[in-house]
Design brief:
alpha+beta; Butyryl-Coa Dehydrogenase, subunit A, domain 1; five-stranded mixed beta barrel; 18 helices; 12 strands; about 55% helix; globular; binds flavin-adenine dinucleotide
């Protein structure tokens, strides 16, 4: 079967037609990134992903990683793929060249991630932690920490981890108990047990840089008493060479539903009393540092989910074009047809297409805001871009991963019984994508973040900024006769969303706070639907413009497909969204009122 990850035409459309990325090259910071260079970088990512990395994906799934005596062994093919990533400088492409990055725009980074994550999510999620750990050290680390760790992380010579979760401290990191005791030389001795640590041990790099959350002795209880430390697997000498092994060891790996090529490790810190760590940033500021890095990490998880969805869609499309089964409805017994001809399959395929495309636009939009924020000197613009990023991140993580899971599930359905077998890649995609709704803050936590922290923040400033952005697309679409009706429908949905917000607002302030949170996930879902409709309508306005200029057949097909995606979402999904909004407004209290014992089961 062909190896499929992402639709290049669609990536080009988003980069060049929706976000006009080469315009960034007018600014000195991105002056190298004209259209030719952008296309070249996407080509490189695509070639590397398809030729070198994708063949390792099912090997990782079937062989997995193995654990013995504190050591994790990866499939040998992964080491070769890691080396290719290192050679191509793919570990931190958007970071500063002085520290080993390539300085590419975030928008382009997200677009290339679609290929790389899609080629082997297990491997690339471990590799993605290099960037996350490096970014924390770059932003908050001391000169010494930067000197020893940063280039090694951004280059992929060493790897990075996030060591946060404990058995009794998952969503609520404020409960963690791993302790840190200060030594005379200013370092700390760490002691505790962590679970679920991605890449906690492996044999792809000579050292692993662990970023550990722990509580310094005497620190306040709860989230205000947590500090962040760097504790490498091998300690580092003053000249940068490796010293003895640190007392942080892997005690086992999880057997998981998916992501078999990614070692999810239990870690023991300080079982010999010698786990040495150095503080990053200030004492007791560990969680604030993590919060500051959260947007990027959550956007990355959205990107992982998109990669699975986009791959699942292309595999399902290819299969539907080739699988012959049944005949045209009403013509039973006549010529058998490809299943893509069946109305039900077409409906599923269009649903998959529209989510995949809408999600791709949304993630690139958020990345583009990061780029624009970096370039502008105007403080008000910087604040507005940050507001938009902040309110959209729960959507980019929570809504996006839920929809990506739906898309992968639909792919299995299109393959019929074969979709349930290991013969085709869609069952692995469905298993792999499942974790994206859980880690980096479960989707329930994302929903609470949107409702509790973002929606009513600064008198709804973030929300108003979002509505203003949607209005720009609405006004453009209303001025385009072919799209006017769709624009009006979305406008009506926005009015309804406002009613929902007005219902939740007073409820959150008084005794209905529990009830409000019972509707946090439905609220995230309707907000996500509105954002999807906006992205798809935005795409349609561009496509309609191009159609009016009579493009060639292949281009016309692509642009006509954009109009159909928007038409389908706004015509068939938004009415359901309106129903969901009506259900939120009823504020039915059953979920809160039901007693624990009335749930039954005993
Ligand atoms: C494959 C994998 C890789 C991982 N990688 C890492 C890693 O590299 N580093 C790391 O530190 N951790 C990692 N994790 C851990 C992951 O981040 C946690 O599993 C996740 O944060 C959820 O914590 P938990 O499993 O303890 O679930 P819990 O916190 O027990 O949550 C259980 C359920 O209760 C809900 N819930 C919990 N609290 C609330 C609340 N206040 N309000 C409403 N609902 C709530 C949750 O949404 C969830 O549905 C990984 C996990 C897996 C499975």
């Amino acid at each position: 079967m062909m190896q499929l990850i992402a639709d290049r035409k669609d990536i080009d459309f988003v980069l060049h037609e929706q976000f006009e990325l080469s315009q960034l090259s007018r600014h000195e910071k991105f002056s190298d990134f004209n259209k030719t260079v952008i296309d070249m970088i996407v080509n490189e990512a695509r070639n590397l992903a398809i030729k070198e990395i994708l063949p390792t994906n099912s090997i990782g799934d079937k062989t997995g990683c193995s654990y013995e005596n504190g050591r994790v062994t990866m499939p040998s093919e992964f080491k070769a793929a890691w080396y290719q990533l290192e050679k191509g400088e793919w570990f931190a492409p958007a970071q500063a060249p002085e520290w080993g990055g390539q300085g590419i725009p975030e928008t382009l980074n997200v677009a290339t991630q679609n290929y790389l994550f899609g080629a082997n999510l297990s491997l690339l999620m471990v590799a993605g932690l290099n960037h996350a750990a490096g970014k924390i050290i770059e932003t908050f680390g001391s000169d010494r920490q930067k000197k020893y760790y940063l280039k090694n992380l951004y280059s992929g010579k060493w790897s990075g981890t996030m060591v946060l979760t404990e058995a009794e401290s998952g969503s609520n990191l404020g409960d963690l108990t791993t302790s840190a005791t200060k030594n005379e030389d200013g370092t700390y001795c760490l002691s505790g047990n962590k679970i679920f640590i991605s890449g906690g041990d492996h044999d792809m790099t000579e050292n692993i840089v662990h970023l550990v959350l722990a509580r310094i002795e005497g620190a306040p209880k709860g989230s205000r008493g947590i500090s962040l430390f760097v504790a490498p697997k091998f300690l580092v000498n003053d000249d940068g060479s490796l010293s003895e092994q640190n007392d942080i060891v892997c005690t086992g790996i999880e057997e998981k539903m998916g992501l078999h090529g990614s070692p999810t490790c239990s870690m023991a810190l300080g079982s010999r009393g010698k786990c040495i760590g150095t503080l990053i940033g200030k004492e007791n500021k560990g969680l604030s540092i993590m919060f500051l890095m959260m947007n990027k990490a959550r956007l990355m998880v959205g990107s992982q989910a998109l990669s699975c969805a986009s791959s699942a869609y292309l595999y399902a499309l290819d299969y539907a074009r080739n699988r012959i089964q049944g005949s045209v409805p009403g013509e039973s017994g006549k010529k058998s047809i490809a299943i893509i001809q069946h109305p039900d399959i077409r409906r599923i395929l269009l649903t998959m297409k529209m989510y995949t495309e809408g999600i791709r636009s949304l993630l690139c939009y958020i990345a583009n805001l990061e780029d624009k924020k970096k370039l502008t000197e105007n403080v008000a613009d910087k604040v507005r871009y940050q507001n938009l990023i902040d309110i959209l991140i729960p959507v980019a993580k929570g809504y996006v991963t839920d929809r990506a899971l739906d898309v992968c599930n639909m792919a299995v359905q299109i393959f019929g019984g074969y979709g349930y077998t290991t013969e085709f890649p869609v069952e692995q995609l469905l298993r792999d994508v499942r974790i994206t709704t859980i880690y980096e803050g479960t989707n329930g936590i994302q929903a609470m973040d949107l409702l509790g922290r973002k929606l009513f923040h600064r008198k709804k400033e973030l929300y108003k900024n979002l509505i203003d952005e949607i209005d720009i697309t609405l006004n453009r679409a209303k001025a385009t006769p072919a799209l006017e009706q769709m624009a009006q429908t979305l406008d009506n949905a926005l009015t309804k969303l406002e009613q929902v917000v007005n219902k939740i607002d007073p409820a959150l302030q008084d005794q209905d706070v529990l009830l409000s949170y019972a509707f946090a996930s439905p609220f995230l879902e309707v907000t996500g639907d509105i954002v999807m409709a906006w992205m798809l309508l935005w795409r349609a306005t561009i496509a309609q413009d191009r159609i009016e200029n009579k493009p060639r057949k292949k281009e016309l097909d692509f642009y006509a497909g954009q109009i159909k995606s928007a038409q389908f979402f706004i015509g068939s999904i938004l009415p359901v969204t309106l129903g969901k909004m009506a259900s939120i407004i009823t504020f039915d209290g059953a979920a809160i009122e039901i007693s624990d014992t009335s749930f039954g089961g005993k």
